[in-house]
Design goal:
Length: 147
């Protein structure tokens, strides 16, 4: 379950009309913090990010499932399932499954949330995008920057 502050920050982002990916960023930030403070570990930065995105979808953020070619069929199916669950929350989580996953994650390392690992992940993700796409988002970011 996401922390109350994370849910509030995401709701605030939504109220300000920010994109679903910005809203989901709050959940990813929370997950990175959890790995850093030792609540649990992660195998890689990508896994920590994926856990955060899944939490966001389940909390009701309208974040679309990854497009074809960007992720496996299994990942797309799970993302769609998370989205559906986010639309009608309230079902009790399986305690047995939660415990099993947490036990597994506790055995993982904490270096996945290091600055180096995250910057490596960001660079490799950016490298997969086209120059035009990178330029577009850089211009968009510059436009939102405070003068």
């Amino acid at each position: 379950m996401p922390e109350r502050e994370t849910l509030e920050r995401a709701a605030e982002d939504k109220a300000q009309g920010k994109s679903p990916s910005t809203q989901a960023g709050e959940f990813v930030r929370e997950e990175i913090e959890h790995v850093r403070e030792g609540k649990h570990g992660a195998r890689s930065a990508k896994q920590a990010i994926a856990i955060g995105l899944a939490k966001a979808r389940r909390a009701g953020v309208k974040l679309a499932a990854p497009k074809k070619g960007k992720a496996s069929k299994k990942t797309r199916k799970q993302a769609a399932r998370d989205l559906r669950q986010g639309k009608s929350p309230g079902k009790k989580k399986s305690a047995k499954r939660s415990r099993a996953m947490l036990k597994k994650l506790k055995g993982e390392g904490h270096s996945a949330a290091s600055k180096t690992a995250l910057s490596r992940q960001a660079r490799s993700a950016a490298a997969k995008r086209s120059a035009a796409s990178r330029s577009r988002s850089a211009k968009k970011a510059a436009a939102t920057r405070k003068k």
